[in-house]
């Protein structure tokens, strides 16, 4: 029986050897996506690591099981984070599981509905700052120097310990390392964690090589692409609406070591990729997750990555589409209203079938 990432990968993880605080996260599917690969002109085999299927709907749960396990082992009473939403929901759930209080600080008006609802439902104290994620992170970093609360942003090293297990799973599922890994980048903790994981597996002799990393940012929030902070980050992908990534330096090093690259994609490209994922493969993700596909599509179109049919590309789908239902409702045609009788329904159905 699967009992979460700490049980599964304990020898690889620097985390207190106590009974884990877990919701049995991880073990997410690696789904082949041939129709999507064809649509974006990718010759290689494309697989999607569907992290939206974690207990709170995002990859953050891998990091949070480790962070909360360690926090409890160290006698913590409360946790605190800044978040664009997913970290908040995950921290809230794992704190609930551990019997700790959670305080989360999110950018007011810029958090997707499902994330806010989750954080509130799990019983966190949700605070909304009149500013962006970068401001929120600055505030919580100061708060943990003055109050007895544990920071559970990805600055917390145990977050990366846990999140690297996604790289282990990708290797275990493929039976080898992928040639490329495409991943959305916001605060840059996750790409850093994947690289740590791939390297650890390589050094342990579990795989024979390392992937190249394709780190994808939104055009309006692309500090790692342009090499400068974004004071007013803006993108429809609110999860990665971040102008000063806390793990930026490590992410840059990881991408460089891997021989990969960062690139930026527009909100239109993100929405296009988001639609392709749902309509060609039946996989509904939040916009930030679609950035990895948008980035791949652009990298292929601009011939910046060259892959052949015998190679393998993995794209990380970081969060579930139900996190951000507004996007679908705002960007797609509303359902056609139907009067409750046969003739009316038949007329509407026939019209629909003709289009
Ligand atoms: N995708 C999703 C769905 C996210 O929620 C995040 C980050 C990322 C990608 C980027 O990961 O920050 O490690 O580079 N969300 C954080 C949060 C910032 O607060 O939930 P990253």
Notable traits:
355 residues, alpha/beta, six-stranded mixed sheet, four-stranded parallel sheet, 45% helix, 14% strand, binds ligand F0G
The coarse overall form would be globular
The DSSP helix count reads: 15
Secondary-structure class:
alpha/beta
Low-confidence stretches: none
Measured as a percent range, the helix fraction is: 40-55%
Termini gap: 47 Å
Enumerate the distinct ligands.
ligand F0G
How would you characterize this protein structure?
This protein is α/β, with parallel strands linked by helices. The chain has 15 helices and ten strands. The protein has helices at 5-9, 34-39, 60-73, 86-98, 113-121, 133-146, 157-163, 165-174, 189-203, 223-226, 248-258, 267-281, 287-301, 325-331, 342-354; strands at 30-32, 45-50, 78-82, 101-107, 125-129, 150-151, 180-184, 212-218, 261-265, 312-317. It has a six-stranded mixed beta sheet with strand order 1-2-10-7-8-9, sandwiched between helices. A four-stranded parallel beta sheet has the order 5-4-3-6. The protein starts with a helix and ends with a helix. The model has no long low-confidence stretch (mean pLDDT 98). The structure holds ligand F0G. Ligand F0G binds at residues 58, 60, 83-87, 154, 184-191, 239-240, 286, 288-289, 318-319.
